[in-house]
Design brief:
By secondary structure, the protein is mainly alpha-helical. It has a domain of about 80 residues. Helix content is about 55%, strand content about 5%. It is built from 2 helices and 4 strands, in the order ββββαα. The strands form 2 sheets. It has a two-stranded antiparallel ribbon. The protein has a two-stranded antiparallel ribbon with strand order 3-4. Helix 1 packs antiparallel against helix 2. The longest helix is centred in the middle third of the chain and has 41 residues. The protein is rod-shaped and about 65 Å long.
Length: about 120
């Protein structure tokens, strides 16, 4: 007798074993809108998510750079005359790169379509 862990024993009919439950997909963790994609759509989805992951990595690398720049900002703002504060300006550029690439990476990983 064939047994299912969810439904118990399955009845055996003259035509062979019959599964009374509806077959579910192998990966039920996928969101409902991604369950019925064709192979081309899956490939485009993977490319979009890879690009989002790349943007998040870039944002993380600039976060490390911004942390190091943060060590010099106090000295730069204290001792540099006038508007000549290069470390502060580099820090602002790094923060803006982190924000732009971080938000874009999160959006691409979540589910908005990629613009090609």
């Amino acid at each position: 007798m064939i047994e299912s862990k969810k439904l118990g024993p399955l009845p055996i009919t003259p035509g062979g074993p019959r599964n009374e439950r509806r077959d579910t997909m192998a990966n039920s963790l996928l969101p409902p809108e991604e369950r019925n994609l064709n192979p081309d759509q899956v490939e485009a989805l993977d490319k979009r998510r890879d690009l989002g992951h790349t943007f998040l990595v870039i944002a993380g690398q600039f976060a490390v750079i911004a942390t190091i720049l943060l060590l010099w900002i106090g000295q730069d703002l204290t001792y540099s005359p006038g508007w000549a504060h290069p470390m502060f300006f580099y820090f602002l550029i790094a923060i803006s790169i982190i924000v732009v690439f971080g938000i874009t990476g999160i959006v691409l990983r979540k589910g908005t379509p990629r613009l090609d």
